[in-house]
Structures are given as structure tokens and as C-alpha cells.
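Sample entry was shown:

___
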Amino acid sequence: MHLKYKSHHTTKQTKKCIVAIHGWGGNSSSFSSIIHSLKLTDVDCYYPQAPYEIDLDRFSWAYQLPNGNWKVNEAKRLFDQFFNKIILSNYDPNNVFVIGFSQGASVCYDLITSLKKPLGGIFPIAGFLRSKESTYFDEINCNIFSMPVVIAHGLKDDVVQPDRSNEAYSLLKNAGMKKVEINFYPGAHKINVKFLQKLKKRIKQQ
């Protein structure tokens, strides 16, 4: 089994790429118009689709078992497989930028725990850790301590509480990540336009 994904490649000989990870109920088309609005003409874009179908064209990165627990390991394995085979085999890690919204931000946090080399940046938006264990990031590879992780969350989010991003920020700092920052904006459970512009600026400066 492999993750399905969509991609957009520029006509230019680009060396950079964005991986945009949708949230619960999204699909491989959810992020395309948002990323397209950034008008990054020299950046390739990839939109992986979660493996668990909720209903028609709506997918999840976790599957709820009858006992109420959530199955996530297979989705993590499939995403790592996609990321290594499709992304890291074709791009310098320093030129790879990952953005995730809500449940997609949880995928971002999971990715941090498995990386061996730093990426250009990871941008979790309105997300949460799959576990509140204080040891969540204890196994982070020291080679990625200098990797930028820029967290964003709306202060009026009533779907995922802003404190969930604060938890991730604190644990990342405690684990040794040197370039982690958190941004709050006056919005609900959505992607902030100003934060997207910050993402664009970082990518262009890389």
C-alpha cells in the first residue's frame, strides 16, 4: 500500500519543494488553491492524501478502533515511505518545506521524530501532538536541532485549543530544538494569510 498524492511541478528547473498535509476530512486537493495563491513559480508542490477514508473524498491520518483508541502507526509508516521515496530522493533536505494543518500538523510533529537530516522548515498550523507524553520528542536526532519549526495557531480556535500548540512548542524547546517559534493570530480554526506570507518569505530566502 502506498499513499496517493497529487503534485504540481514548475516549468523551471527548480530545486525546492513544499509538502502540504491536509487535516481531518481533507484530501489531496485541499491545500492546492492555498499554496497556489502564494505564487511560488519556482517551487514544486506535493499534496499527500491520508490513507483512511471517512466517506466520499474525505480522509483521515488516523483510524478509530472499536475500543475508542486511534490507529496511527500505519499512516505514519506510509507517510515516511512517501517522504523518503518521493521527496528526499529528489530534493536536498534543506530545500524541503513541510506545512500541515490541524491533523496534518500532527503528521508534521511525527515527522520531526523520524528525521535524520534537517529540512528547510516545518510549519504546523492549528495542530496537536498525538500523545501528551512529556517524552514525545525525546528521540529527536541531534542533527536536526537547528531546523526551523514555526508553529501557528488561531487564538479563537474552538476545534483544537491553542494550548495544544503551546504544549508542542515547550516540548520541542526542551528536546533541544534551537529554532522553534510559535505565532498566535486573531482567528479561528483556519490558516492565517499573514502566516502563509511568512512561509513564502522563508522559502524564497532559502
